[in-house]
Specification:
The complex is a heterodimer of chains A (about 600) and B (about 170). Chain A is an alpha/beta fold and about 600 residues long. Chain A has 21 helices and 23 strands. In chain A, helix 3 packs parallel to helix 5 and helix 16 runs parallel beside helix 17. In chain A, about 50% of the residues are buried. In chain B, about 60% of the residues are buried. Chain B has a six-stranded mixed β-sheet with strand order 2-3-1-4-5-6, with helices on one face. Chain B has six helices and six strands. Classes of the chains: A alpha/beta (about 600), B alpha/beta (about 170). Strand 8 of chain A pairs antiparallel with strand 2 of chain B, so a sheet runs across the interface.
C-alpha cells in the first residue's frame, strides 16, 4: 500500500524522530505549546534508539538546558526543548554557553508562536540568538525541521557551539509525509575532559573565549550548506528580489504558484537567519534595488541585511505584529509587485472562546474564590487555569510563577495605605514546581499576608498531561521518587496549610474564610490552600468519580448565573424558553453546578 | 490532483482525528499532504480549525477563498471559517436544522451510537457519499482502522457508515 518508511507526522513528531535518528542520548524539556509534542515523540519512539537514551520532563527550562549541556560536555549528543518564553527562563545558562561552547552536539529546540496562538507574547528566538551569538536554523516544513536536526548536530560538533533549531507553530503543528531512516549508532562513551579555563571560565579567560566565538561565527556564516538558496527569476524584474525564511517562505511559494508568478524575480530561502553571511548582504545591496523580506516575527534578516531598498518590518511594508498568514503575504506581495490587491480578507471573527472543561475542578475553586471574596485581587498564572478569567477570578496572568510575587507586590502596595483587600493567588501544581517555590519563600520572608491556592490537578494539563514531581512518575511512565507539595510548603515557612477537594464546596469556602482570617491575625502570614482534584481529562479520574444525570427543572428563572458566573460549557440558555438547559453531550455529570443555582432548579435526575 | 480542505469545530469534537484520517488516506496513496492544526489553549472547548492540502503544496495554510471543501462540526463556526471557502466550495455541516450546505445531524446519529464525539466520522461518511473528497470510502476505512485502537474500531466504522449510507 504505502512506503513503510514514510509516515504522516506532525512537525514536532518529525523533530522527535530526527533526534533519535541523529543519535541524541540525553533529551530534556519542559512542556509548552507549541513545543510539547517534541519530547513526547522522543518518548514514544525511544525503542528505536540503538543506544541508551535518557529522557526527562525537567522541572523547568533552565534545568532542562543545564542537564543537556553537561551531557554534551561528555561528548554525547543532547537536546533541550522548550517554547519561546521558556528560553527566557533558560537565558542565564544559554547566554554563557555561547562563550564556553559544547563538546558533543547540543541542540536547543525553541518553538516560537507567531500570532500568538497559545503564548504570552510572540517574541522571536532568532533575535534572542542574535543577541546571545548562537547560530539558529529556521525550517520551512516538518520535513526540513527533521533534516535540520542532524545538520544542527553536525554544525554544533564542528565548531563546538550550541545550535538552536527554531520551528514555529505552523511547523510544529503541521503534518506532512515524513520519511524515516536508520537511527545512527555513534558509539560514544561519556568522557568529560576537565578544562577549568573553559567549563569554569573566570573573567580572565572570557575575552579569549569571546574572541573564539566571534571567529567561529564568521566561519559558520560562510558554511556552504547553510547559505541562502536562490531560485532564479525569469529576468522580467531584474532589480527585485525576495528573501524569506521559515513557514512564510512556504506560504510565499504557494502564493507565487497560484498567482502564476513563480519566477517573477529572484527568490532566496534563508535557512540560517543568524549568523547571516555578510557577503550575502553585500550581494543583495549591489544586485537589487528593492528586496522584499518575509520573516516571523521580528526583522532579524532585515536588520542584518541593512538594505536601503528593503521592504520589510522595519520599512513598514510588512506588518510588525502577528502571524504572517498567506492572506497577509498576498497583501504584502501585491504591494511589492504592484499587483491588484487581494479580495476581502478572511473575517477577523475569532469564534468561540475556550473555557475550562465541564467538570474541571478549577471551575469549582474559582467560582467559590470569586463568591467568597467579591472585592478580592486575584493574581494567577500560566496554564489551563488562566481560563479562570472567564469566571472573574483571574486578574493577572504574566509568566510562569509570577502570581505569588505579584501577590506580594500587591500586598505591600496596599498595606502601605492601610486597608488590604483579600489577595488570593492561584497557581497550578506544575507551575508551582517550575517557579513557585522561590517565590513562596520570598512571600513568607517578606511577611506578605496573602492566600495562595495551589490548584493541584496532578498533571500538566494545558499541554496534554505531562508528569509532575509529586506523582512519582517520570517521562514515559518510569516510576521515580515522588516529591510532595505539602512538605515543600511547610519547609518554606508556611504555618497555615490546608488541603481540600474543591468539589466539596462548603468545606472549600470554609477553608477560604479560615485562610483569610489567618492572614489578618496579628501573628498571621501566608496561608496556603491546596485545591486537590485530578484533571478531568484523565480517564481514570473521570471513571472513578460519581456521575449523575443533571437536569434543570421548571423552577429556572433564567437568571444566567450558571451560564455566566459559573460558565460551564455544558450549560446554555435556550433561546426559546429563556431558561438554562444542559447539553448532555458535554456534561460529565459532576454535579458541581447544583448548589450554584439560586432557585435550586438544577438537580440530579437519576444516577447513570 | 490538488485539493484544499478545512475542518472546523470546537475543542473536544475530534477535529484532529478527522484531519488525520483524511491526511492518512493521502499518505497511503503516496500523495503529498500538509495539514495545519489547532493545539493548545483553544482546544479547551474553543473554536478550532484544521486545514488539509493534498497535492503539490509547500504551505499547510489556506488563503481566503481557496478551500474546495469545508467540513463543519460546529454550525456556529460558519461565519468564522466560511470565508476560507471558494464561492462554489462544498459545505458539509453537522446540524439538525435547515440551512445552507449539505446537512446531517451527525451529533444526533453519534449519540444514538453511544457517543457524541463520533459525529466527526458520521460527517466524513456524508462527505464521501456526496463525492466531494479526493479519497474513496475504502481508503477512509483503511485509514480509520490504521488510526483507531482495536477496541474502538467497529464503533468508528459504524459511525462512518451511518454517514456514508443514507
Amino acid at each position: 500500500m504505502t512506503d513503510k518508511n514514510t509516515q504522516l507526522l506532525m512537525g514536532n513528531e518529525a523533530i522527535g524522530l530526527g533526534l533519535i535518528e541523529a543519535g541524541c542520548q540525553v533529551a530534556a524539556a519542559y512542556p509548552g505549546t507549541p513545543s510539547t509534542e517534541i519530547l513526547q515523540a522522543v518518548i514514544d519512539r525511544a525503542d528505536l534508539a540503538p543506544e541508551p537514551l535518557h529522557i526527562e520532563w525537567s522541572v523547568n527550562e533552565k534545568i532542562a538546558f543545564e542537564v543537556a549541556l553537561a551531557a554534551s560536555y561528555t561528548g554525547k549528543r543532547s537536546v533541550a526543548v522548550m517554547k519561546q518564553v521558556g528560553l527566557n527562563v533558560a537565558a542565564d545558562p544559554f547566554m554563557r554557553t555561547a562563550y564556553l561552547g559544547v563538546k558533543g552536539g547540543m541542540l536547543t529546540i525553541v518553538a516560537d508562536d507567531p500570532g500568538p496562538h497559545s503564548s504570552q507574547n510572540e517574541q522571536d528566538t532568532r533575535l534572542f540568538c542574535l543577541q546571545a551569538r548562537v547560530p539558529v536554523l529556521d525550517p520551512v516544513s516538518p520535513v526540513e525541521a527533521k533534516d535540520l536536526v542532524s545538520v544542527g548536530f553536525e554544525l554544533s560538533e564542528k565548531y563546538e557551539v550550541n545550535v538552536v533549531l527554531r520551528p514555529t507553530t505552523r511547523i510544529c503543528h503541521s503534518r506532512q509525509n515524513v520519511a524515516s531512516r536508520q537511527p545512527q549508532r555513534l558509539g560514544r562513551v561519556a568522557d568529560f575532559q576537565k578544562d577549568p579555563t573553559r567549563w569554569a571560565a573566570t573573567p580572565a579567560f572570557l575575552p579569549a573565549l569571546h574572541r573564539k566565538l566571534n571567529h567561529h561565527l564568521a566561519n559558520i556564516a560562510s558554511e556552504p550548506d547553510l547559505q541562502p538558496q536562490l531560485t532564479p527569476g525569469d529576468g522580467s524584474r531584474p532589480r527585485l528580489a525576495m528573501v524569506a525564511s521559515g513557514i512564510v517562505y512556504s506560504h510565499l511559494v504557494d502564493l507565487l504558484e497560484e498567482l502564476e508568478l513563480a519566477s517573477c524575480c529572484d527568490l532566496y530561502k534563508v535557512t540560517m537567519p543568524y549568523p547571516l553571511n555578510p557577503d550575502f548582504s553585500r550581494q543583495l545591496q549591489t544586485a537589487y534595488d528593492r528586496v522584499l523580506i518575509l520573516e516571523e516575527t521580528y526583522p532579524v534578516i532585515e536588520l542584518q541585511i541593512a538594505h536601503p531598498g528593503a521592504a520589510g518590518k522595519q520599512s513598514g511594508a510588512v506588518p510588525r505584529e502577528g502571524e504572517l498568514t498567506p492572506d497577509i503575504v498576498h497583501q504584502v506581495l501585491a504591494d511589492f509587485l504592484d499587483l491588484s490587491p487581494p479580495a476581502g480578507l478572511s473575517s477577523e471573527r475569532r469564534g468561540q472562546r475556550p473555557s475550562l472543561c465541564p467538570g474541571c475542578p478549577h471551575r469549582a475553586a474559582f467560582f467559590n474564590i470569586k463568591a467568597s471574596f467579591p472585592k478580592g485581587i486575584f493574581p494567577s498564572d500560566i496554564g489551563c487555569y488562566t481560563l479562570g478569567m472567564n469566571l472573574g477570578a483571574v486578574n493577572t496572568v504574566h509568566c510562569m510563577g509570577a502570581c505569588i510575587s505579584q501577590g506580594v507586590g500587591f500586598y505591600h502596595a496596599y498595606a502601605q495605605d492601610g486597608e488590604v483587600p483579600p489577595i488570593v493567588v492561584t497557581i497550578g501544581d506544575s507551575t508551582f514546581f517550575h517557579a513557585g517555590i522561590p517565590a513562596l519563600i520570598n512571600a513568607v520572608v517578606q511577611q506578605a499576608r496573602i492566600i495562595i491556592v495551589i490548584l493541584d490537578n496532578a498533571t500538566t494539563a494545558m499541554t496534554g498531561g505531562q508528569p509532575v514531581p509529586h506523582m512519582g512518575i517520570a517521562a514515559g511512565g518510569r516510576p521515580t521518587r515522588a516529591v510532595a507539595i505539602e512538605p515543600l510548603v511547610k519547609a518554606s515557612g508556611v504555618d497555615f496549610l490546608e488541603v481540600c477537594d474543591p468539589y466539596d464546596q462548603e468545606q472549600f469556602k470554609a477553608l477560604l474564610q479560615q485562610a483569610d482570617a489567618y492572614t489578618r491575625r496579628p501573628d498571621g502570614g501566608v496561608a496556603v490552600l491546596i485545591s486537590r482534584h485530578g484533571c478531568i481529562m484523565d480517564r481514570v479520574v473521570r471513571s472513578s468519580q460519581p456521575s449523575f444525570k443533571i437536569g434543570i427543572d421548571e423552577r429556572c428563572v433564567g437568571c444566567r448565573k450558571c451560564v455566566e458566573a459559573f460558565e460551564c460549557p455544558a450549560l446554555a440558555m435556550d433561546p426559546v424558553s429563556g431558561k438554562a438547559v444542559v447539553n448532555q453531550d458535554r456534561c460529565i455529570g459532576c454535579g458541581v453546578c447544583i448548589p450554584v443555582c439560586p432557585v435550586h432548579a438544577i438537580g440530579k435526575e437519576k444516577k447513570v | 490532483m490538488r485539493q484544499q480542505l478545512i475542518v472546523s469545530g470546537i475543542g473536544g469534537q475530534g477535529v484532529l482525528f478527522l484531519t488525520r484520517v483524511i491526511a492518512q488516506t493521502a499518505v497511503n496513496r503516496e500523495m503529498p499532504v500538509l495539514t495545519a492544526e489547532t493545539h493548545g489553549m483553544a482546544q479547551r472547548g474553543g473554536t478550532v480549525l484544521s486545514t488539509i492540502k493534498v497535492g503539490d503544496f509547500a504551505s499547510p495554510l489556506i488563503r481566503t477563498g481557496q478551500a474546495d471543501v469545508g467540513l463543519f462540526l460546529w454550525e456556529a463556526n460558519l461565519p468564522v471559517h466560511r470565508p476560507l471557502l471558494q464561492e462554489e466550495g462544498q459545505i458539509l455541516i453537522n446540524a439538525d436544522g435547515a440551512g445552507e450546505g449539505q446537512r446531517i445531524d451527525a451529533s444526533g446519529i453519534a449519540r444514538d451510537l453511544g457517543s457524541a464525539v463520533l459525529a466527526n466520522l458520521v460527517l466524513l461518511g456524508l462527505a464521501i457519499r456526496q463525492k466531494v473528497l479526493f479519497c474513496s470510502a475504502e481508503e477512509c476505512e483503511t485509514a480509520i482502522r490504521q488510526l483507531t485502537p482495536i477496541k474502538f474500531a467497529e464503533l468508528n466504522m459504524a459511525a462512518f457508515h451511518k454517514g456514508l449510507h443514507k
